[in-house]
């Protein structure tokens, strides 16, 4: 598994460093000179930019012929699919760390509550998980040569689902369960609900992708 993760890293490490640099620059620029209304956009943009290289791993594997070579290694197809999903989570974690550190410094400077970051980052984490949950099964099914189109479709569908989920979660937490928006514990529950939904859908996606990949012929 370590070999699979390292291979994924070396296939995209240049673009990964590039997108990390861009995301840090954009976040610092907007936090320094932009309006507060742009903060949720910055959070989402940072996570998306850092996650893009992980979405390109399968395309690079196909171009290099590694997708066929890896089948000759002492790993099964479940390991290969799990490696893709795990690498995506690892890259997303990098984006979360970058976002957290950047905003934490900002909130210290402006003396605002860190709870705003939790409320802003949780829906973005769910959205990025949804994109990953959609893109991997589609890439296995349609092929990496259609990766650009798959990314557009996955992003569009994920945004729509995320918007609907945000309304459902808000209704559930603050109306049905009668949590108070002014309480910190309520906002923690609200935020973690998004992350939990994203993780559940991501796990379901892994099971679907594994089924598709096991039937895939090279």
UniProtKB/TrEMBL annotation:
InterPro entries in the record: ABC2_memb-like (IPR025699)
Species of origin: Shouchella lehensis G1
Identification of the protein by name: ABC-2 transporter permease
UniProtKB keywords: Membrane, Transmembrane, Transmembrane helix
Pfam families listed in its UniProt record: ABC2_membrane_5 (PF13346)
Spans traversing the lipid bilayer: 12-33, 39-58, 85-109, 121-142, 149-169, 189-213
Keyword check for Transmembrane: yes
Highest taxon of the lineage: Bacteria
């Amino acid at each position: 598994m370590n070999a699979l993760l390292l291979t994924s890293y070396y296939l995209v490490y240049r673009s990964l460093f590039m997108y990390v640099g861009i995301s840090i620059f954009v976040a610092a620029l907007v936090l320094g000179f932009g309006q507060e209304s742009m903060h949720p956009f910055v959070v989402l943009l940072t996570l998306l930019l850092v996650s893009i290289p992980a979405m390109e791993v399968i395309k690079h594997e196909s171009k290099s012929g590694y997708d066929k070579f890896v089948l000759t290694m002492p790993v099964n197809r479940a390991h290969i699919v799990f490696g893709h999903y795990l690498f995506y989570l690892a890259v997303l974690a990098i984006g979360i760390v970058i976002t957290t550190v950047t905003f934490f410094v900002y909130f210290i400077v402006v003396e605002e509550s860190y709870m705003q970051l939790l409320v802003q980052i949780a829906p973005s984490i769910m959205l990025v998980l949804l994109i990953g949950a959609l893109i991997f099964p589609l890439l296995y099914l349609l092929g990496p040569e259609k990766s650009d189109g798959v990314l557009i479709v996955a992003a569009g569908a994920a945004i729509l689902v995320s918007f609907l989920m945000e309304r459902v979660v808000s209704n559930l937490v603050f109306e049905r369960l009668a949590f108070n928006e002014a309480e910190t514990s309520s906002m923690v529950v609200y935020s973690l609900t998004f992350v939990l939904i994203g993780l559940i859908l991501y796990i379901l996606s892994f099971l679907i992708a594994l089924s598709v990949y096991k039937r895939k012929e090279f």
